[in-house]
Specification:
- This protein is an alpha+beta fold and 457 residues long.
- The protein has two domains: 2-155, Toxin ADP-ribosyltransferase, Chain A, domain 1 (Alpha-Beta Complex); 201-456, Serine Threonine Protein Phosphatase 5, Tetratricopeptide repeat (Alpha Horseshoe).
- The protein is 63% helix and 12% strand.
- It is built from 20 helices and eight strands.
- The chain has helices at residues 2-8, 11-16, 18-31, 49-56, 76-85, 159-171, 177-187, 191-204, 210-226, 230-247, 253-268, 272-289, 295-310, 314-331, 337-352, 356-373, 379-394, 398-415, 421-437, 440-456; strands at residues 39-48, 63-66, 70-73, 92-101, 110-112, 125-128, 132-143, 146-153.
- A hairpin with a 2-residue loop joins strand 7 (132-143) and strand 8 (146-153).
- The protein is globular and about 70 Å long.
Amino acid sequence: MINRALQTQDIKVIVKMRLFIQDFHRQLEQIKINDKISTISYRSQNLSNDDFQKKMKTSQDNLLSFNNFMLADTNYETALDGARHERINNNAVGILFRIEVESTQASIPFVSLTNLSYLAEQGKYVLFSMHSVFRILEVKQIEDHLWQVNLKLTEINDKQMACLDKLIREETQDVAGWYKLSKIIIILCDFDHAKEIYFILLNLLLENVSSKISHIYNELGLICDEMSDYASVLSFYKKAIEIRHKSLPPNHHFLSTTYNNIGELQMEIDNFPVALKYFEKVLQIRLKTCSPYNSSLAITYNNIGLIHREMGDYSQAISFFQKSLGTKQKTFTSYHSSLAITYNNIGEINQLMGEFSQALMSYQKPLEIQEKTFSLNHSELATTYDNIGITHQSIENYSIALSFYQKALKTRQKSLSASHPSVSTSYNNIEHLYQSMGDYNITLEYYQKTQNFKRNL
């Protein structure tokens, strides 16, 4: 029941069984294998052809995580037979995971059940705790519609795991417990499950816990904003502000959070003067309550910069973006993705002001960060490729512009669905580039691709 709940993300069951899940994980930590060992185990699974092609086939050297407690069999023939049975139809492939463990410094506890379970009579099993993280070593086809994926359990000193762990800690540093889980789920864009957690928490809280209730209303507003449910956004934010005005002083940082969120909503609906008023309220509070190196201050500078950009005040925009960058450089590591966002914003202003050489220098910095921290198929890399391409097109470096537009298109085709609007953006950029080059045959080709895309929406 627990594994099914974890796999399907049944929030109600997970919340009810939270103490058991926690205790089970701790027991695995207590009885985990401590000797230096080398073991191979296997697990079978099925995937749809589409999921396999997009998420697994070309994922060598990436990380893979299972969000449930995972049982693996040390008997190859038994596991292979199971994988063969996973080929339920022509639209699915069977997967045989070959799991290699070589160290006592594993990133997650695992135990041999040979002497601990009645399953020992049927074979030798290894039980991995939930959220085990593996590195994909190889993906190879072994039969028709049957693939073997070789995995290796990551170690605690794995550099990519350390970066991922640090990033998650930074993104969730202001919350704890179930609020931390909700935050992570929001980062993963699973908004329906995040809402479900918050509504469950609201039912569990007592009425006099006003600070937690107002926090949940604020987070629900954020989620509805991401889902473009703007009426609900304002409703939740107003509830949060009403509670906070009654219980907090006027310069409390919790109020600044909700002001900021309302400002972002007003910016989304192009109400820039109102958005600027709210962001200026936020800045007044945060300058009084935050340290000069607080990431919240960097966000406020960035938001005010965005408003000035939209209003055409580029000198003010770049001034606030640079303030944001200065704060982030003192707060985050040099390759944090948040720095890439600000570098891109500065580059865009350089470009709008006709400072193309400076724009290219600004865009090079997020490119270096993203190539180090993201997979080569990450959609944010495509945005940076586009920005560099647009700048080269502006100074008539057409061949270089084309190479970056093609990189953006290739990245989007690998990371996004064929119907995603960003794919059409790439077609459109290449179309206009060929038009500028006077190559009207290829211009027509990409124009038709753009039109076909629009008709298929």
